[in-house]
Predict the 3D structure of the following.
Amino acid sequence: MTGFEMFWPLLAHAFLVFCLYALLVVRRAAVVRSGKVERIAFRENLAEPEESRVVNRAIANQFELPVIFYAFSILLYLTEADNLAAVVLAWVFVAARYMQAIMQLTGNLPLRRLFFMVGFVSLVIMWLWLAVWMATS
């Protein structure tokens, strides 16, 4: 590897999180303008309308399993165990996170589950690769 290939998927995932936050702002502003909820409801963490709650939950999901992905990516880079297979698996994980977020926003739960599993399995394989590499180095 030439250096920073492992970090491009991390940047792509961060971009997804930023996009979800932007969508949350847009949706919250829309429900306030429509009169469905007062602005204070968000500050006081009161009942959030479904239009913005689904986005808020999609954001929360990006800080669960991806935390392990970030740790893996950094460890892989620091141990110089990154290779083409690991980078491809990282991209698979990030693509699955994008698709999972899209499926969550559109309400397609069966496909959301499928994409979660694709990301989960790719992450498990990445960690197994790192464990094998460290055990044999």
